Structure formats: structure tokens, C-alpha cells
Amino acid sequence: MTPRYDVIVVGAGIAGSLIARHLGDQGRRVLVLEAGARAADPDQGNRDALATYFSASAKVPGSAYRPQPAVPWPEVTDLTGTDAAPGPGFRTAGHLPQNGPLPYASGYVRVNGGTGNVWTGLAPRMLPEDFDTESFGYGRRWPLDYADLEPYYRAAEGELGVSGDAAEQRAHAGLPLPDDYAFPMQALPASHLDRLLAAQLDGRHVKDPVSLDSVALRVVGTPHARNGVPNPEYDGGRGYVPRGEHGREDPGNRCVGNASCIPHCPSYAKYTPLKAQGQWGPSVALRDRAVVSRVLTDGTGRAAGVEYLSYDGVATRVHADVVVLAAHTVENARLLLLSGLGTRSGQVGRNLMDHPVLLTWGLLPQRVGPYRGPGSTSGFEGFRAGAGRRLRAPFRIEIGNWGWVWAKGPVDGDVAELVRERGLFGAQLRRAVGDRISRQFALQFEMEQGADPANRVTLHPHERDPLGLPRPLVTYDLSEHVKDGMAAAKAVSDQIFTLLGAEDHTDYAPAAAWPGRFEHRGRTYGYRGAGHAAGTHIMGDSPAGSVVDSWQRCWDHPGLYAVGCGSMPSVATSNPTLTMAALTLRSAQRIEADLAERDRPATLTSHAPRTPSTPHTPGAPA
Amino acid sequence: MELTGFNSEALWSTGLVERYRTVAIEQLGPARFERLLQEAGQPRGRRNVQGDWDDWDDGLLDAARAVTQLWYTGSWPGPPPFVVSPHAYARGLAWTAAGLAAPATAPAGYGSWGHAPAGESAS
């Protein structure tokens, strides 16, 4: 007999693993189906990931994992820029074909833990004004506001283990944190580069040529989901214990500066979904290599279960009262489309967003010591908010601690240039390589991209993946609003470089290396994708214009949830994982309430009656 | 060795000399590799303004560059490029030249990234 579950979760990434943990804590029977492979022995998995990363020629986000032919994933190297007439263009290969004017420039990863294994680990909150950009003339309004989400932000910061400085976030990042709020851990130390920049730039002003604002520069620490020194004031003085390997309490666990957070943290300091999985109760089961091909519904449209395929194509059906899609923004949309569900609004797959990132890079006059510590530890927060948003996309500036790796690839490229183009050998080469690498720095301008229904995921009309399922097809472009934001960002960068006396090496060439390249008002810009896919099952307050409600429930399908960044009506300028985790915890509470409601008339089901209860989430109101 | 700017003690201390010899012979062929060893091992007086050995032909120069890149990065430059081994990645001379360690090979501890970088290690 087919076992019946309370909840089926599709995808064992950050959102899916968190949902499973919370429902498992309530004793709910949860089946997590993961398309990717799970390491049979997690310790061996950790070592394999590191060795695979070391041995990879292209140290891209998926480089810690061996490809599984049955479940391909898009990698940034699938995109190549071209110089073909009539202008900049790009080609795609692999799992994510595209047909838009510009590329969606990010990938994702299909392994146990998902893209949550390879994320940077930066965990800033969204700003209160980010929840309604319609008042700035672009994007989509959320059906909830900052105050609604605030308790869940706290809970998410506890769950992920966030290091940060509440006073600094209040004073310089525009967050209305209460005076008594403390992050679980103290702020991570600023990098040497952050300190060099702060010494020269704090208090200086730059002109934004688009908004015409004069903006004061200030280097501000970024909250991290990465272990630091526990904060004794956390949770009303109860303190916090960092979690390490398998999510176990490990009071001494700290970030030790491996500088490989993307794709792999060998010291278990960065939060990954594997930590949530390590805390799963006995009623949660993970089935890996299970590729969900469609959601099953009953005659009324209510979710009834899913069908999944093994890697050799054998189909299995499993049933539950609640189905949670947590398979990534692109794959969630693909699954809804494959299932023909959520179609009333016509918005499934639409409003695809990312943070397109304008990169600038150069050499400081002094030694920086790049490639040490997390990829970014601080940023400039002064371009995220305010009326300037009407005129150009807002942006957050990350200070890049890893040299030119995002812009130009690993240091192998520097060596190749100095050996082959400058013809250096011997002592000259040694000096030149040392000088070139040790002075590198980069700025990463993460632009907000507003929801636009034309940017979308559809099913490819004829391309199939190895299991015979239609591949997702992406159509994507950048608006004038975003391009004006990049123009402003470049002008801000130019002024910062001048103030620093830095040698600017920014050059979006060769064409092949910059698939995301465009001309705007006579200048050429290049962008990369931050991997922050959002928007394909957009949340709203009406079934006519949105796919899910504020609880991430699909409007027309009771029992079906689509969770993750795909629900976000706006991506704002903050790295979205913390917001996704907050939304997920809110949905977990809703699902538990649904199940408690189901169980209340005890005689009608085979389940024992349960007392509804609210999971304790540190920092959240009871 | 004249190509890398690191002395033989520094090169031998990586434990990679034999492995790189094998890789270079496989990639270049024994004849070209032998010629490179002989030419690169000789003290030379004539260099052009770029510091190149201007009496080398293109084949020899290309071989010298590939071997130099191998020592600096742990990768044969290709095409297609490949990383010789995780140990080779860790011991790339580019990191030594910059006074740094390859990511994830020698983490220096909590907060180490906040300190001024050490100078290039002597070798």
C-alpha cells in the first residue's frame, strides 16, 4: 500500500528543508523529494565537494558537484557572449535555453541541499519601503509589509544563525530594528579591504548623475548567515549556540576564512540546508534522485500528491494532504506549468527577476590581500532607498574580497596574461604576479530588477531533458530603469576609484566572456547574475493577478503551496535568502494550522487528534 | 628555475616536480620537453625588451609558457585546461608570489581576513 504522508515537499533546498524541519517538529509525516543526489555519507560528501572544487578548471557555483546526467542544471558557463551583428548578443547551451534580448545570467544547482549549498551566505533584510515599489513607479506591491514579516525575520535569523550588528544596521542600513534586538552572533570582522576603503571613503560624497543626489559614502558591515562569536544578549539574554556539522550545536564553530563560500564551506560555518536536515525529526524522510514530474490534484483542484521519476524513468505516485513546491524559482514554475496548475491569473512563470550585477574592478595603490575570508563582508548602503528609485533602479554595493574572480575568473587568467601577453618569465613574472593579485579589489553593484510579466519561464516547445520532460525556456531583458541604475552605478564607481587613487581595470571584454552586455546611451555595460532568481509564482492579494497568496498558497488549489523566492513580488536590493527563509517559516506555521484544522474532527481521519501549537522560534513572539 | 623565478629548493618543496615532468612530457612530447629543459637550463645573455629569450622559436616559447603557467596555477593551460590535482591547485606559485594561500587550502582562522596581508613568503 502506498504510504500516505501529511506533507510532500518537493526540493531539499533552504525553503524545503526548513519547512520539513518545522513540520517534523510537530510530528507531521513529511516526505521530501529531491531531484538531485544525496551523499550517502555526509562527511565523505564534504570531502568530495572540496576535492571536486579543487579539481574544477572553472570554479563556478556548481563546481563542487559532479554532474548527474538525469538532472542537468544551468551553469553560468552555459552562456557565451557574441559579437554578431546587429550588436552584442549571446548563445546558450544546456538545461536553460533562452530566447530574450539579454540573458538571465544565473544558474542553480540540483543536488541535495540545492542552490542553498553554494550561496554566498549574506543575509540582509529587505527595507520597509521595499515592500511597495509601486509607489516609486515600478514593480509589484507585496500583500504584506515589513511589520508583518518582522517576527519571521527574527525567527529566520535564529534559524540560519546570523552574525550582525543591530546598531549599525539601524543607523546605517535603514532598518527599524528595536533597541533591544540582538543578532544571534556578533558582526563578522570587516576585511582588511573594507578597512582600507572605510579609512579613505567614509564621509566622502559622490554624485549620482541620474537621481542627482549627493550620497555620503560609508562602509557598513553586512549580516551573514555564517558563524561568528555568539551574542550573549540574543533572545532576551538566553544567548545563542552556533551550529556546525550536520546542524549540531558546536559552540566554538567559527568562519575560519577558507574564502571558498561559493561553492563550498568546508568548516560548516556557513548555513546550508544540510544543517536543517541534521535537525529533522524521525517523521521526516528524504528520498533523493526523485524527479517530480507533476502535481496530482483531485476533481476539485485540491492537491493530492505528486508523481516522480527515478533516474531510469520509472514513475511513482505518492499522496499527501499538502504538497509544497520548493524546487527553485525556475523549477517551481516549470512544475506548475507541467501540471497545468495555477493558470487563472496567467502569471505562472512570469515576472522572473534576478539581481543583475554590474561589476567594476581595479588595483589599489596598496596591498589588499584578497582571497581571504568571506566573499564580501561589507558594502555601501546609501543607494538602496529614497526618491532616487523613481529615476533609476536602486542598488546595493558589495565590496568584493575575492579579487577579480567574479569579473575575470580565477587567477589563472592573470597569470596567462602576464606570461603570454606581456611575455614575462622568471623574477619579473614573480614580481608582476604578486603585485597584480595582491592589490586586486572589486565592487559589485546589485541592481533591483522590478517584476515585469514579459520576463518569464515557459516550457520549451520541443527540447526535452534526459527524462523526457520539457526543458524550461527563459525570456529575459533589462528595463531602461535597470539600465539607468547601472549607468548611475558606473558613475558612482568611477568617483570611488578616483577617491581611492585606484587603477581601474573595468572592461567588459572580450565579448565571449560577457554574455550580459549591452549598449546604453552610448556606453557599453556588462553584468553578471547574482543567482537570486525570484518572481515566477508571484504573491499577491487577488487570484486575478497573482499565483499565490501571502501564505504562498496557490489560489485555486487548496493544499498546494509554492514557496521560495518565486513568491516574491520584488527582490529589492538585499540578497533574498533571509527573506525567503522568513516567508518559509511563516508558511510552515500556516501549513501546521491547516493540518491541525484537518485533524480537529478526530473521527473523520485515521490520524490521532493533535493539539495545535505554535513552534517556538527564538526571537519571535509566542 | 629561470622560467618561474623560484629557486629549485622552492620548486622541490612543492612535491610536484616529478608529477609536472610527467604532465609536461605527455602534453609536449618527449623531444620538445627535452629541448625545453636544455634551453631553459642554460644561462642566457640575450633577451629582448619583454624579457623573452629572443632566440627561441614559437614552439619552444609556447612550451616554456605552458610549463610556467602549470607551476603558477597547478593547471595545464590546454586547450582544454585541466587541474593536475587538488595538491597542485593548492601549491600554485601565483599564491606564493602574492603572499596568499589558494582558497580553502590554508584557512588562517576567525577574523584573519581583517589583518593586513603578510608579505610575500621568502623562498
TrEMBL record, chain A:
<dbReference type="GO" id="GO:0016614">
    <property type="term" value="F:oxidoreductase activity, acting on CH-OH group of donors"/>
</dbReference>
<dbReference type="InterPro" id="IPR006076">
    <property type="entry name" value="FAD-dep_OxRdtase"/>
</dbReference>
<dbReference type="InterPro" id="IPR007867">
    <property type="entry name" value="GMC_OxRtase_C"/>
</dbReference>
<dbReference type="InterPro" id="IPR036188">
    <property type="entry name" value="FAD/NAD-bd_sf"/>
</dbReference>
<keyword id="KW-0285">Flavoprotein</keyword>
<keyword id="KW-0274">FAD</keyword>
<dbReference type="Pfam" id="PF05199">
    <property type="entry name" value="GMC_oxred_C"/>
</dbReference>
<dbReference type="Pfam" id="PF01266">
    <property type="entry name" value="DAO"/>
</dbReference>
<feature type="compositionally biased region" description="Polar residues">
    <location>
        <begin position="603"/>
        <end position="616"/>
    </location>
</feature>
<feature type="domain" description="Glucose-methanol-choline oxidoreductase C-terminal">
    <location>
        <begin position="454"/>
        <end position="583"/>
    </location>
</feature>
<dbReference type="GO" id="GO:0050660">
    <property type="term" value="F:flavin adenine dinucleotide binding"/>
</dbReference>
<feature type="region of interest" description="Disordered">
    <location>
        <begin position="594"/>
        <end position="622"/>
    </location>
</feature>
<keyword id="KW-0560">Oxidoreductase</keyword>
<dbReference type="InterPro" id="IPR000172">
    <property type="entry name" value="GMC_OxRdtase_N"/>
</dbReference>
<protein>
    <submittedName>
        <fullName>NAD(P)-binding protein</fullName>
    </submittedName>
</protein>
<feature type="domain" description="FAD dependent oxidoreductase">
    <location>
        <begin position="6"/>
        <end position="40"/>
    </location>
</feature>
<feature type="domain" description="Glucose-methanol-choline oxidoreductase N-terminal">
    <location>
        <begin position="286"/>
        <end position="357"/>
    </location>
</feature>
<comment type="similarity">
    <text>Belongs to the GMC oxidoreductase family.</text>
</comment>
<dbReference type="InterPro" id="IPR051473">
    <property type="entry name" value="P2Ox-like"/>
</dbReference>
<dbReference type="Pfam" id="PF00732">
    <property type="entry name" value="GMC_oxred_N"/>
</dbReference>
